[in-house]
Design a protein that fits this description.
The chain has 7 helices and 8 strands, in the order H-E-H-E-E-E-H-H-H-E-E-H-H-E-E. A hairpin with a 4-residue loop joins strand 2 and strand 3. The protein has a domain at 168-306. It has helices spanning 13-107, 119-125, 169-174, 178-184, 188-198, 222-232, 238-255; strands spanning 112-113, 134-138, 143-146, 160-163, 210-211, 216-221, 260-269, 272-282.
């Protein structure tokens, strides 16, 4: 009896070719994916090129806009400067014309409202005794400018209550601006005395001057003056400020023709009691153009003079 033995010919054709077909299918898929990737890369590169071109165009447009803006700004600035120069020239011309008219009026003995007059210009146009126009206060309470000693032919504002010549030296100096003050004073303490005198109308706890009592209208402590000098004068050391304060107090007394008095006041610091120099304006001090308070006038404060 014969027995059949299986051979390779027993496999179906499909089972024999399946691996080849699988390899071919994988290869096709890889090629297709690669082609798709190449196409996508090409599209991206084209898009990048387009974006670069757009960016370059935008940069060029921005540069052109900035250039136009710079030209406009330069033009506007030039026009502004030209107009400003023209306005300044016109204003200076007008000031000169007004000053000339005012100077002629002053020469005719006119009294002009002081706020409407520029004394520095007047001094240059007029041959004035003492090289300054005079500031006077009249019965109407207003300030006027006149040639020194000249009476007003029209008698406007009433009689002269007091004039610059009546003022104390410290009062006259305090009326100058800082630039003029520096030019008319020969000593630093005199300049500082005038500047400190200006602060007198604003006394208070944290101000340069302090409101007093018991016959003291206001007073100024040497220590406060030294601190004020350091705060307002550039490059002044603590020791030099203290020395300047001492000399300034002396100058204030001299320039006020001793209407201000110097004395000492007790001060407590760090648990210790000191005496420091002060300059005092008393209630009954006679100041030209100002009314004295008198012994019974003015509210008293809790602070007691030492």
């Amino acid at each position: 009896m014969t027995t059949d033995t299986p051979t390779d010919e027993s496999h179906t054709p499909t089972e024999q070719v399946l691996p080849d077909q699988l390899d071919e299918l994988v290869e096709q898929r890889i090629q297709q994916a690669t082609a798709d990737l190449h196409e996508q890369i090409a599209d991206l590169e084209a898009e990048v090129d387009d974006l670069r071109d757009e960016l370059a165009n935008e940069r060029d447009a921005r540069r052109e806009a900035e250039a136009r803006l710079a030209n406009v700004a330069e033009t506007v600035e030039g026009e502004h400067d030209a107009r400003l120069s023209a306005l300044e020239a016109k204003a200076n011309g007008t000031r000169s014309m007004i000053a000339e008219l005012q100077s002629r009026e002053l020469e005719k003995s006119a009294h002009l409202q002081y706020d409407n007059v520029e004394p520095n210009i007047m001094d240059e146009l007029l041959d004035i005794e003492g090289e300054r126009v005079e500031r006077v206060t009249k019965d109407d309470g207003n300030h006027y400018a006149r040639l020194p000693g000249e009476e007003d032919a029209l008698n406007r504002g009433g009689a002269v209550a007091h004039s610059t010549a009546d003022l104390l030296p410290i009062q006259r100096l305090a009326r100058y601006d800082d630039e003029m003050l520096a030019s008319v004073t020969n000593r630093k303490p005199d300049e500082l005395a005038a500047k400190a005198w200006r602060e007198r109308d604003d006394p208070g706890r944290y101000q340069l001057w302090t409101t007093g009592s018991s016959g003291w209208r206001v007073y100024l402590k040497s220590s406060d003056l030294a601190d004020w000098i350091r705060a307002n004068e550039e490059g002044v050391s603590k020791n030099y400020a203290q020395e300047l304060a001492r000399r300034t107090l002396d100058a204030m007394r001299e320039l006020s023709k001793h209407r201000l008095i110097t004395t000492q006041k007790k001060r407590t610091a760090d648990g210790l009691t000191y005496k420091e120099n002060v300059v005092v304006l008393t209630d009954d001090a006679d100041l030209p153009g100002e009314h004295s308070l008198g012994e019974s006038e003015g509210p008293a404060t809790d602070e007691v003079a030492g």
